[in-house]
Amino acid sequence: MSSVAVPEKTPDDSSKLKTFLSILRKFVGVTDIASVRFSLPAQLLEPRPNLEYWNYLDRPETFASIGTSDDELGRMLEVLKFWFTKDLKYIKGKPCKPYNSTLGEFFRCSWEVQSIAPEEANLPGVKTDANGVIVEDGDEKVKVCYLTEQTSHHPPVSAFYIDCPERGVSARGFDQLSAKFTGTSIRVSPGQHNLGIFVNIEKRDNEEYQLTHPHAHLGGLLRGALSITVSDTCYITCPKTGMKAILQYLEEGWIGRSQNRMEGVVFRYNPEKDTITKLKDVPESDIIARVNGSWHGKIYYTPAGTKDPILLIDIEPLYPASKDLPPSEQQLSNESLKFWGEVTDAIVGKQFTEATKLKQDIEERQRQRAAERKEQDVEWKPRFFTGAVTPLGKPELTEEGEKVLQGIRDGQFALEESTVLGA
């Protein structure tokens, strides 16, 4: 007589946080808990792979629109629109903990979007008719392609590449987080190999923009309502145009509702002698535009010499866009959704004991393969990127990585299973 699995009781958010806190307390004083890679029981996890969850394309049409403007300020503002929409998941939903990525795990997907969002019409250098309607490419559908691979386990680092060939815009970088538990919150910072997002506009003489990540805090651990707050400065620089943006996320007072305010400036700078890191140090004569608003709501820009703010973007009506994924039968065994598929099914089916066992089996296999590589003196290398954590900040695609991206563009996903030990 076969037994039928009975769904286990789903823990509520309060009990999840209590368990999470009891685990975190063991790491008080640890410099970087992200590097420890501690294992959580399945009931505390979001049933999603980290590589699938962690991308910067919650609104891919803003990425596809970068480079549209014929004006240098217009292109910087296009990059800012991408910046403010890249992580909508933290604004529209609650923070969560996806699965830790395993060495050699990878994820690929795409989006088909309008190349120019309607609200782009209020940016300088974007061609419009007398009614403010975009006159070029407004109805053109373009594809945004995404490939990421876990390239290092100690430290945990993944490389990513974003491409929109029709628009001639691409981006790449290394993702690595450093986290410290303070006792009441978790301070999350970019790791040493995470130098930000590097955006390249091929059709604008290969203009490159470096977007650095601010420090953030995961709070609400004690009151049972997780939230992300940012009270730090980040920078966007373009050496070719000599243009820089400083964005200051303002710290909230302890009384009153969070306003999620930010302010910033776009100004001329000297890439060879760049020492300005604070808004107050930017000479008034160098300012091209001011930026301000709520990064949860409306953000405005005001060109220098004018007084009336212009809407840059309204975050309020926007939600993360859904991805186009390779067919399940064409995904490899180390492709994120298939690799974690059984764990995900168990969590969704509320079989938390089974999910935890499956997750622990995966982790044990990874340890065994690492031991085998060490015993056989085999160096593991990424499949789609040339180095685990180099070149510094800007990973390069291997020949196979280039082919995979081309396959995503063409809708061709067939790949051979890797024979590399540990992949």
UniProtKB/TrEMBL annotation:
Top-level lineage group: Eukaryota
SUPFAM superfamilies linked: Oxysterol-binding protein-like (SSF144000)
MF GO annotations: sterol binding
InterPro entries in UniProt: OSBP_sf, Oxysterol-bd, Oxysterol-bd_CS
A single GO cellular-component term on record: cytosol
A matching Pfam family: Oxysterol_BP
Gene3D superfamilies in alphabetical order: 2.40.160.120, 3.30.70.3490
Similarity remark: Belongs to the OSBP family.
Protein name: Oxysterol-binding protein
